[in-house]
């Protein structure tokens, strides 16, 4: 991701934000970064305009050295100025003075550097190693020059060596990133001017100055930081963020700055809606900044945990988990990091895989705190709370370590209550007597000393949810006796039950599910009802799909099937991906006596299997692993907050209705009447907006009409009686049992066995669960009422076709195809007229979308089902010609084979009609042959079709198979010898064949080709008195192109000029209109003039080429 931006302050296109929004200021505002950078800039006070008096020297001259004529200062003098002019002139002079000072400072810096390189009496590295002198002596000379002393040194070998200078220690280099090089003086001066403009709130002027700095020296982080500060003041936080990121890229080794930019990106992100793209963009930028900070400093724990937190907010818990683990290697006692690690482990795809790591991290902190004392609970960044114990126990539940979980719960809870010294309770792992509400069993323990600790540290001191956890663990172990003691303290029928469980409502689910598993549905129902009561009073918790399924199971176990069905359907409506509710409903419907119930059971099972396949994926080793899902919250409920209204459902994706088969008939009738009322309302909207939606340019009207039409179509498609079983199953998105519809094999063998059992009970003929119509009723004519929902079926067909046209106009051609496909699959419109209308609409959508593949498919339908039909063959050619796409589908193998099969079928029918194929007219074919392919009409007046032969010849011609194309063109010419198109095709085939390398007799081929071309030319120009001007132009142009093809430009130019002459003649006779020219004809004047102009230019006739271009090639 490239987070740089241009100097105009505009982010890249994919970072553009239409929402805008203010830029909140705070500790991480752009000013914070601006001050940091300006602390590092060694600005010259002279350049900043500070630290000088008005009497300061200018250019080394004192005020006494300046001679000023007193007369010039008198009022009314020739150069006298009024007050306003004096202020403007003074400001102008100050600006010039500051600029002049900057230039002088720059000159002095360059001068000193030059002198240091060329003078040996100044400190310099230029003469560190003198020529002909050893390094040691050269160093002594350099030190002497630097100290201002003189030492006589000889270079001869007889000279006494000089005294060694005192040894100096080399200063140790300071670790850390290097500071950026200071900007040149002129850049410092411009930065100071930009800051002055910013202080005066002249933001646009400041932006222009900073842009100029960036243009001259883009690698100036101070300029980018100053620009971000300006954008923040202008409430353009997006541009300010991009400027800070651009500045950070200029100093990539500064981890501190990267972290500050990340915090700036995250400022206010919690107040943005989760579905807002700005939230995701801000988090991704923060992750990038933290990653760069870690590249600069890999030991920075703050950057690593910050990156992990941002990844968690992005929903990438598996990546955040790795960052938390690496952070704990540096700070293993950070309780905040451990909590985040546990959350990432619980939110991962497979919590069991990472449960041991999170549990070990908690265990390490607990052991450390125990080693510090009985009353020590504080770790790094927080203390160990009851909520940490709840999360810690969650991993024992995931790993199904019931005994270990009970032991840890008792130890840690005893420690939190201040009784860690009573370790003797661990000698009774099968009893929880220390948590009894009375003293009866505790007094039986010899080591127990009554009165040592307060009675408030036993029994009811244990939180309710932890006691519920003890009950669940004991039930999982099969210790029902000890579990019943805990259940007595968790009585849901007492008057204070709501207050007792108000902060821990989720533990009621655990207790109820444990009772339900132990076949105690009546008791479980009491806990579930208490949960529902708390949910109604609290308002910030809801009846989710899990509790609804559990309630349904209770009702089903108690024999109340109607109430159970209501709960299961409510669970599906709350969570459309819930599998358990579908399985329970299928179990109920399976035992219904009527066939419709078993069909719905089969649909529910198939839907559950597909959802199961989507919820599991294959890992790298090929094992099935669950996809990521959100876990339920642990610990006490958060403070109450206003309940947000449910998000409105997308009108284009309505819920699929699950029939309530076990409720009474009156309720089912009411539901049907409600759907009829909604359909009538949508139909009124469709009728009202029909004309305006298709004859106006108002997009809102078209969208409203499309929404109402979609609802009607969905209602029609959800009616099972209107579609065959396989089409209805396909509409629901269910794959076949044996067709490999599931992407992942089913993990639940019972579910797969149930689906197979239902399929066998439905007795489908094809064995894949997609056709349940009995054999006796297959030939029965289906009878439907004249209307559905009060709308006639002809009106329904109009809605289908109109919706397809509306969708293709909105560039949604795939959705338009689905609508046409749904209309074709329905058993309502099986007559020829309706089928023909549906396919014509389908073809129109394909042509409008330029989809040549679909055009070929629809044309094949017409050629197959309307045989013999010359118009269908012409429609195939016209549709392929209309699509502005390559000819890949026109010349594809399937299309070519299909046309060839059509020719062979036509030849067989003609030969059978004439009795020339050797097969008796009354001979019988095998049953398989009779079922394959369309049922053709009996032989009658069937003849060879010229259009079919010509189309196949053109397909071969396009694929450069000229010799094969000539055979089919010849067959067509034998049927219609005067057809201009056939003669032109034959002539061009011969000419192109002659130009191929494999041609053996080019002279013969060219002669044959031009013979047919001249026949075509005469048919167009001389033999046809009704020929239009456009047809004559076409003949002239084609002849010219043929001669150009073989390189005879002189002959080609003659025919091109005839095209231009025809155009001039038509203009003269028609006074500006071409004579006998149809509006559908294409004029070839421009093409002919262009070819003439090119030939003239190539032959050196520049004036002629210019004349043709000026007359015919000028755009009006």
TrEMBL record:
Pfam family of the protein (one): TPR_16
Q: Where is the composition biased (Acidic residues)?
A: 56-72
Biased amino acid composition, Low complexity:
149-167
Q: Name one GO biological process term.
A: transcription by RNA polymerase III
Q: Which SUPFAM superfamilies match?
A: TPR-like (SSF48452)
Query: Is Transcription regulation found in the keyword set?
Result: no
- Nucleotide-binding among keywords: no
Residue windows of the TPR repeats: 545-578, 946-979
Point to the regions of Basic residues compositional bias.
626-641
Q: Where is the composition biased (Basic and acidic residues)?
A: 1-11, 642-653
Q: Which UniProt keywords apply?
A: TPR repeat
Gene3D superfamilies, alphabetized: Tetratricopeptide repeat domain
Q: Where is this region: Disordered?
A: 1-24, 46-79, 146-186, 618-661, 914-937
- What protein name does the entry list? TPR-like protein
The organism encoding this protein is Sordaria brevicollis
Its taxonomic path starts at: Eukaryota, Fungi, Dikarya, Ascomycota, Pezizomycotina
């Amino acid at each position: 991701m490239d987070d740089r931006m241009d100097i105009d302050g505009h982010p890249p296109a994919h970072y553009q934000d239409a929402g805008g929004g203010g830029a909140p200021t705070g500790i991480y505002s752009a000013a914070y970064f601006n001050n940091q950078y300006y602390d590092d800039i060694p600005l010259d006070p002279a350049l900043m305009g500070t630290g000088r008096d008005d009497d300061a020297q200018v250019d080394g001259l004192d005020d006494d050295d300046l001679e000023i004529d007193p007369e010039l200062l008198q009022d009314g003098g020739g150069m006298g100025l009024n007050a306003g002019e004096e202020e403007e002139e003074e400001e102008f002079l100050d600006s010039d003075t500051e600029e002049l000072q900057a230039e002088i400072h720059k000159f002095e810096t360059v001068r000193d550097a030059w002198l240091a390189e060329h003078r040996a009496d100044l400190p310099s590295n230029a003469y560190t190693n003198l020529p002909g002198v050893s390094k040691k002596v050269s160093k002594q000379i350099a030190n002497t020059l630097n100290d201002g002393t003189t030492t006589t040194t000889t270079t001869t070998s007889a000279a006494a060596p000089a005294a060694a200078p005192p040894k100096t220690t080399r200063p140790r280099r300071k670790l850390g990133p290097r500071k950026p090089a200071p900007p040149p003086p002129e850049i410092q001066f411009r930065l100071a001017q930009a800051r002055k403009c910013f202080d005066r709130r002249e933001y646009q002027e400041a932006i222009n100055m900073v842009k100029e700095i960036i243009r001259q020296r883009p690698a100036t982080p101070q300029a980018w930081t100053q620009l971000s500060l300006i954008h923040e003041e202008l409430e353009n936080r997006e541009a300010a963020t991009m400027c800070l990121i651009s500045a950070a890229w200029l100093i990539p080794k500064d981890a501190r700055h990267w972290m500050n930019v990340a915090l700036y990106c995250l400022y206010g992100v919690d107040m943005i809606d989760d579905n807002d793209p700005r939230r995701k963009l801000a988090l991704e930028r923060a992750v990038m900044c933290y990653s760069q900070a870690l590249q600069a400093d890999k030991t920075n724990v703050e950057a690593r945990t910050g990156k992990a937190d941002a990844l968690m907010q992005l929903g990438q818990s598996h990546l955040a988990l790795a960052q938390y683990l690496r952070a704990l290697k540096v700070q293993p006692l950070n309780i905040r990091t451990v909590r985040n690690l546990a959350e990432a482990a619980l939110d991962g795809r497979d919590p069991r895989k990472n449960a041991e790591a999170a549990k070990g991290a908690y265990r390490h902190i607990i052991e450390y705190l125990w080693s510090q004392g009985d009353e020590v609970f504080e770790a790094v960044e927080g203390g160990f709370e009851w909520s940490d114990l709840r999360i810690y126990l969650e991993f024992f539940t995931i790993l199904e370590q019931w005994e270990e979980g009970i032991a840890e719960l008792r130890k840690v809870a005893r420690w939190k209550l201040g009784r860690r010294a009573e370790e003797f309770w661990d000698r009774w792992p099968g009893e929880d007597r220390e948590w009894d509400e009375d003293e009866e069993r505790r007094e039986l323990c010899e080591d127990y000393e009554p009165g040592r600790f307060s009675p408030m540290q036993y029994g009811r001191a244990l939180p309710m949810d932890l006691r519920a956890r003890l009950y669940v663990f004991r039930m999982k172990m099969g210790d029902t006796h000890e579990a019943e003691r805990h259940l007595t303290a968790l009585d849901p029928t007492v008057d204070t039950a709501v207050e007792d469980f108000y902060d821990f409502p989720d533990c009621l689910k655990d207790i109820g599910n444990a009772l339900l598993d132990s076949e105690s549905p009546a008791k479980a129902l009491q806990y579930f009802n208490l949960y529902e009561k708390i949910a109604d009073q609290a308002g910030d918790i809801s009846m989710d799909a899990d509790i609804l399924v559990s309630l349904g199971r209770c009702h089903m176990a108690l024999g109340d099937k109607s109430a159970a069905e209501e709960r299961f359907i409510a669970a599906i409506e709350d969570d459309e991906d819930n599998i358990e509710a579908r399985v329970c409903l299928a179990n109920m419907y399976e035992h219904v006596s009527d066939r419709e119930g078993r069909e719905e059971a089969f649909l529910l099972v198939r839907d559950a299997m597909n959802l199961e396949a989507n919820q599991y994926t294959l890992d790298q080793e090929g094992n099935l692993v669950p996809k990521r899902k959100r876990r339920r919250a642990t610990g006490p409920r958060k403070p109450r907050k206003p309940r947000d209204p449910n998000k409105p459902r997308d009108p284009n994706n309505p819920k699929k209705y699950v029939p309530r088969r076990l409720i009474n008939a009156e309720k089912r009738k009411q539901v049907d009447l409600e759907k009829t009322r909604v359909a009538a309302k949508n139909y009124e909207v469709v009728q009202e907006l029909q004309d305006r939606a298709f004859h106006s340019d108002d997009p809102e009207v078209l969208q409203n009409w499309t929404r109402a039409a979609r609802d009607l179509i969905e209602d029609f498609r959800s009616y099972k009686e209107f579609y065959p079983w396989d089409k209805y199953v396909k509409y629901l998105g269910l794959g076949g049992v044996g067709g490999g519809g599931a992407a992942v094999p089913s993990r639940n063998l019972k579910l797969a066995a149930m689906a197979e059992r239902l399929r066998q009970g439905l007795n489908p003929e094809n064995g894949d669960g997609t056709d349940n119509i009995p054999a006796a009723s297959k030939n029965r004519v289906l009878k439907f009422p004249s209307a559905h929902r009060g709308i006639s079926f002809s009106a329904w067909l109009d809605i289908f076709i109109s919706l397809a046209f509306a969708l293709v106009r909105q560039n949604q051609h795939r959705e338009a195809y689905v609508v046409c496909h749904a209309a074709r699959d329905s058993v309502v419109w099986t007559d020829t007229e309706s089928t023909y209308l549906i396919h014509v609409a389908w073809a129109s959508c394909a042509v409008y979308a330029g989809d040549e593949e679909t055009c070929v498919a629809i044309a094949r339908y017409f050629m197959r089902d309307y045989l013999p039909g010359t118009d269908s063959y012409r429609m195939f050619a016209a549709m392929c010609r209309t699509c502005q796409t390559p000819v890949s589908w026109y010349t594809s193998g399937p299309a070519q084979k299909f046309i060839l099969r059509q020719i062979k079928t036509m030849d067989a029918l003609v030969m059978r009609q004439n009795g020339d194929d050797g097969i008796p007219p009354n001979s019988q074919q095998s049953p398989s042959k009779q079922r394959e392919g369309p049922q053709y009409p009996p032989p009658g007046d069937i003849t060879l079709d010229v259009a079919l032969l010509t189309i196949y010849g053109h397909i071969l011609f396009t694929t450069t198979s000229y010799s094969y194309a000539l055979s089919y063109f010849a067959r067509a010419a034998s049927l219609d010898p005067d057809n201009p198109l056939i003669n032109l095709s034959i002539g061009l085939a011969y000419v192109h064949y002659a130009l191929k390398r494999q041609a053996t007799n080019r002279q013969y081929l060219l002669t044959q080709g031009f013979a047919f071309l001249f026949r075509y030319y005469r048919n167009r120009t001389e033999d046809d008195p009704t020929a239009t001007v456009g047809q004559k132009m076409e003949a002239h142009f084609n002849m010219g192109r043929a001669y150009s093809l073989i390189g005879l430009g002189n002959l080609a130019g003659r025919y091109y000029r005839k095209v231009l002459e025809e155009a001039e003649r038509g203009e003269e006779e028609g006074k500006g209109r071409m004579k006998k020219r149809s509006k559908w004809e294409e004029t070839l004047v421009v093409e002919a003039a262009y070819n003439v102009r090119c030939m003239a230019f190539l032959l050196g006739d520049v004036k002629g080429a210019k004349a043709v271009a000026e007359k015919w090639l000028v755009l009006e």
